[in-house]
Amino acid sequence: MQVAGRNVFLPLRQTVLGARRQYPVARQSKSAGTQTNVEQVPPSAAKCHGKMRGWQLHSYGDIDELQLSDKLKIPSIRSSNECLVRIRTTTVNPIDVAMLRGYGATVLNKMRCLPSDGIEFPLILGREFCGELVHKGMGVSESLPLGTRVWGVVPLQASAGAHAEYVAVPSYCISQAPDQLDDCEAASVLYAGLTAWSGLYVTGGLGGPCGATTSSGGGAHKRVLVLGGSGGVGTLAVQILKSQKVQVLATCSARNVEMVRNLGADFVVDYNDCEAMEELCKYAPYDIVLDCAGQGAQKAEELKYDYRQYITFSSPMLANIDQQGLVFGAIKNVGDLVQTNFKSFVQRGGLVKWGFFSPAPHGIEFLKKLVESRKLIPQIDCSFDFAELPKAFERLKGGHMQGKAVVKL
Ligand SMILES: NC(=O)c1ccc[n+]([C@@H]2O[C@H](COP(=O)([O-])OP(=O)(O)OC[C@H]3O[C@@H](n4cnc5c(N)ncnc54)[C@H](OP(=O)(O)O)[C@@H]3O)[C@@H](O)[C@H]2O)c1
């Protein structure tokens, strides 16, 4: 349990630390009334002081709550290690659909620097992007000159995400985009990729301590079953694992079996075909069963095969706190995890863990190396113009995608 507990709270701790790193100079700047920590604005970024287009949320609800405005204030850099990026492409992920409904608001609002009225709106969703670095703080490395084509992610607690023309992010969230990818492909890798990487290497310890703390990967000759190998996270998980010589089995719907096989999975099963699903017992025990299909921890109880770790990206952690408040929600989280792990350990001899997206620079480096060596090829299901962004949300809600939904600015 100690191991499971440590992994569960690590990403949350990382995100909190990220938030602390992001704001200290902002407070200094406010009191001083100036921003001396920001590198001189180049001519190309002069319009950063103007207005931008972006999709805003003024209350939680459904897709019709998204409102396009062309009068939004361009975000300003508030600390010496922040960067302003002019976005060319972004994506829609399941987390955007969930946040539209208010998912995670209790915890995320605690982590946001909310105004004195305590209201989080307006919010801008969007967790990943490809674009051009147009402005940066003095503390940002010289290896990222202005004008660099970058790819990046937006921390979950940021109120202003990537569904806009500009986004401000801490420099550890971006790096030079790989030349091998066009703008649509480059926007579609990092959020799902860092989720898959963190689940496998941080939560799952697939590559040992080095795999979790460096960009070295690892896990050769282990055996991993990916539930939902055809989605945003699953397509990247399959390719990450194959690149590290891990034996990969995967599930998805019938129409996507061929695609997942082409990504390199050794054995792919249609999850609606009960007979074929029985075949998965032959390959057990699995070192890791990776749930990229929204099945949750309870699914671990239904599996007929043994595993050492069942890692799900659908944790009830934020939802429990939304429903029961910080204290009772946290107690319920611990209770749920203890109960699930007790059953899992007794029945299957394995642990159940919750995996999370983690904006770790060495995770970004790991994914970049795979792209550069052509071992990771992003899968794009569909793309939309910026004005049609709600259609990308609709497409995602429809399910059965083959990769990501991209939005072009
Ligand atoms: N905790 C975190 O930080 C975090 C971060 C990212 C994502 N997530 C979660 O991770 C999950 C995957 O995200 P994603 O972006 O990859 O979503 P996605 O693109 O919608 O992919 C969903 C996948 O699930 C498969 N699937 C659906 N029903 C299934 C079933 N009954 N059995 C097996 N597979 C099934 C789909 O297969 P077919 O399309 O072939 O039917 C598809 O491969 C989502 O639940 C998301 O919320 C969590």
TrEMBL record:
CDD domains: RTN4I1. Keywords: Mitochondrion, Oxidoreductase, Transit peptide. This is Enoyl reductase (ER) domain-containing protein. InterPro entries: ADH-like_N (IPR013154), ER (IPR020843), GroES-like_sf (IPR011032), NAD(P)-bd_dom_sf (IPR036291), RTN4IP1 (IPR037397), YIM1/Zinc_Alcohol_DH_Fams (IPR050700). The keyword Transport does not apply. It comes from Drosophila ananassae (Fruit fly). GO terms for molecular function: oxidoreductase activity. The lineage of its organism: Eukaryota, Metazoa, Ecdysozoa, Arthropoda, Hexapoda. It is found in: Mitochondrion. Its main location: mitochondrion. Belongs to the zinc-containing alcohol dehydrogenase family. Quinone oxidoreductase subfamily. It holds the Pfam family ADH_zinc_N_2. It comes from the Eukaryota. One of its GO terms (cellular component) is mitochondrion. Residues 61-407 form the Enoyl reductase (ER) domain.
